[in-house]
Specification:
The chain has helices at about 25-35, 45-55, 75-85, 95-100, 120-125, 140-150, 195-200, 225-240, 270-285, 295-300, 330-335, 435-445; strands at about 40, 65-70, 90, 110-115, 130-135, 155-160, 170-175, 205-210, 215, 250, 290-295, 305-315, 320-325, 345, 365-370, 375-380, 395-400, 420, 430. With about 450 residues, the chain is α/β, with parallel strands linked by helices. Helix 8 (about 225-240) packs parallel to helix 9 (about 270-285). The termini are far apart. It binds pyridoxal-5'-phosphate.
Amino acid sequence: MVENSQIQLVEKPTTVNLNRFVKPIDIKKLVAQYGTPLYLIDEDTLHAKAKELHKAYSKFKGQVKVAYSIKANFTPAILKAFMKDGIAFDLTSLGELYFIKQCKADPENIIYTSVTEELEEYIEVLQSGVRRIVVSSFNGMTNLSKAASKIGGAAPLTMIRVNPEVGVKAEVRASYRNSKFGVPLNGGTIDSTAKMIKHLMGSDLLKFEGFHFHLGSQITDFSCYTHALDKMDAFIIKMKKENPAFQVNTFDIGGGTPIFYNDPVPTPAQMAENHISKLNQLAETHGTSTLMIESGRFLVAESSILVSRIVNTKEYNEHKIVIVDAGYHILLDAALLKQEYPQEVVPVVSDSKDKTTALATVKNTHLAGRLCDTYDVFPLSKVSDLSESEVGRYVSFYNVGAYSVVFNMPFHCQTKPPIVMKDSDGKFRLVRKGTTHDQLFREEGGELE
Ligand SMILES: Cc1ncc(COP(=O)(O)O)c(C=O)c1O
């Protein structure tokens, strides 16, 4: 097994190629048609990412299923693109289920992992034909059991979301002690994996299928996966001693595959190399035939660019403040997680009329959003290039496909930007209309007054 410390990282951030799937001339045309801010999505990148993630785990001696965590970006055009790849969908709410049903995805391809786990919720999930459910509490398991009894038919394949309680070095961690996610392996209360397994093994209504864990997001130190899998191995051995018939058919190792923002990150293949032999050993010793890899960020982030327009600049001592018509209302993680999206001033299209002379480079350039809020200043990536910032020019924010559109909010009465997709045939297509102030006014109750 390759230890994480041995993985060779790309050393120079400058070697990172940003996904410039849209040429400056096309940006010029698209912003003339749709205005700014404007999200752009590249369909080919979505397919390439789905393929890359699946391939990374191809050494697993069983079936590998990649599931797209739609919480990262539920734009229907993205869901439909992934349906072409035949991948599964990881859902966590009835709203997401509605979206997926509207896109006519096969319920067999859905894994449903709820935080709320209510009876009515599970009834609707089972009625929709979803069979693979991850339970995260004893109450949740009881509700699923009641829902299964009400609906009838084959017992749902029930997985337990465990909290392996391993340290995770990442900005977003989901495996810390006493967290809201999953249950501990040997907890002292009914919310314990060991106790829930005993219940499941004796149930006619639910069929135990396997385990699920999700350690965090944008994980670059993979030792947490090895630690978690070692813990699971020891736990399964213990369970088998108590009940030799115990078998784990599916193992779902959640999300976390990282993407480039500011520092180079290992590839999915390097990530898989870290724990593939452990996964194979689990498969051999415990009969696990299916490995599930969930991913939100990796599958969608690099597919998307946000184009904004520079609306103002000012100079303050040796600093230059560049203000764009975007803000954290459409890129929330810039404020929440200090996400350093790579930014770049869009080169001028070489028809002479529009050509501008580059300003003398001002050393300390700050890129700020349009909101009247202290946090609305965008952290810069090491590869950001704002050297030609000037009013009227455009700034592209790269790798914004994950956890951005889904957080669009109307702070300062801001509307939602339109989204355009570059289809695999190279054509640009509007896949979400922008909203208007009038729509927002009515949504906020204006028409009731
Ligand atoms: C259960 C579960 N699986 C997968 C993911 C996706 O994680 P990522 O976007 O880091 O791949 C999340 C994200 O919150 C999650 O909660």
